[in-house]
Amino acid sequence: MCQDGEMSKRRGLIRVALVGAFVAGFLLLVLLTQDRIERANGQGFDGTHYHLIAEEFSEGQPFQADAPFAFRIGTPVVAGVVSEVLGVSTIDAFGIVNLLAGATFFGLLFLYLRRTGSSPNWALALVLSALATWVMPFRMVLFYPVLSDVIPLALLVGVLIMLDRSANCVVPWSEVVIVSGIIFCGSFFREQMIVAGIAASVQFLRRRPTWSSFAKATMPIAASVFAIGITHLMVKSTGKYSIVSAVGSSFEQHSFDDLVLAFFLAFGVVAVLAIVFAPTIGHWLLEQRYRFGLVIATFGVAWLAGSDMERFLTFASPVIFAAVGRSLTQYDWAQLSRFRIYASGAAGIGVLLLSQGFFLPMRDEISPFGLDAADLVRNHHALPVLSVLNSPSFAANFASLTPPLFIRLLLIEWIIVTVTAVLLLRPPVSAWMKRILFEAPR
Fold it and tell me: Higher confidence at residue 64 or residue 7?
């Protein structure tokens, strides 16, 4: 027994050392190769508005910026405070705030994955894959520090952990108040926090509604709407932004193909596994309504809200990663041959490296592609291999900005990867395909 305990402890230490070495090596790689965005002296695109709000706060001036960015005052105010306290530039303050919020997000994500049924190993593997993902709050922050997404993303996972705690019992008013308070605060950082309000309201509304459960279900959405209303009173917005015209424009410009490609570009190998285990995942999402509500609301917002759908989709990442981690944990790996296991592992690592441009730093040119006369062939330096590799711009990895020809090529590649994963991980399906394709009819 003592020997078994010592061996288990030794294996645990080896695992920790290997993970630590991987994370340290990856962080060093990114830090050495990833330059900060050059546009607007490091402020980026939307970041110019957030930077302006932070400067206005530091100088004691009224908030005034272009809508809808003007209403996301939370992170700029926090960055303004950090800039004053630490004596650093506003851009550096944004980087510090968002990196700390990103670390909180990854820690809470691990706790949520464990709580929802992922084993420690699979939870850790999925968190590391999220760490390596270009659109998640590490690589993106190092490249583009002036963002408003990261703090609300961490707050979202906190809400999900509380919702999962109350999944099978009557929710006390104290928990409703805490969840609504988090959503209220988060809505000052980004209006997409209303998605968490929708998820919480769906969860609090019992199958046989009572006046009490209806009141509880109303609070999270009301808290988000109230906070958004306060920001509109606090800020003088400029520009001609209209949410109705923006949604209409997005609906016209974004095809369903764009949304599907954005799903693959944002989540990579996790998206493939979500499809492989779709029956199990679908059942799990419907077990607790907040999970299904969050995913549907997030995909709806991503489709209709703006050009960078991948960043909007990250709000669904905790639930999607949890569903995949739970499925991988419960999967019967003994049914696979050694070849299938090794092939699946190698393919998964390869897809992660290629789809996330693992060894390629992001660049900031606004126009990554050049049309030829036929409006078909694009920049010959950009390689469409699961994502747009070796492109001079990170914007090339936004599905809505990807050329139509590249969209078709990338979707075909992702379909091939997904079918391959199904054949490797679903032996009955591969046996059925083998009978259809190779066995002569009797």
Answer: 64
Cα 205 to Cα 161: distance, rounded to the nearest angstrom: 18
Q: Is the dihedral of CA 319, 323, 325, 329 positive or negative?
A: positive
Q: How distant is the alpha carbon of residue 334 from its chain centre? A: 31
Tally of CB atoms within 10 A around 239: 12
3-state secondary structure of 238: strand
Residues in the chain: 442
User: Cβ of 92: how many Cβ atoms within 10 Å?
Assistant: 17
- Token pair 């851009």 is at which residue? 91
HEC profile of 49-89: HHHHHHHHHHCCCCCEEECCHHHCCHHHHHHHHHHHHHCCC
- Residue 268 near residue 356 (C-beta atoms within 8 A): yes
* Radius of gyration in angstroms for the set of CA atoms belonging to the chain, rounded to a whole number: 23
Q: Which of 311, 300, 276 is nearest to 399 (CA)?
A: 311
Beta bridge partners of residue 364, listed in sequence order: 393
Q: What is the pLDDT of residues 338-394, one digit of tens each?
A: 999 999 999 998 888 888 776 566 665 544 444 443 333 344 456 677 776 555 445
Angle among Cα 383, 385, 390 to the nearest 5 degrees reads 40
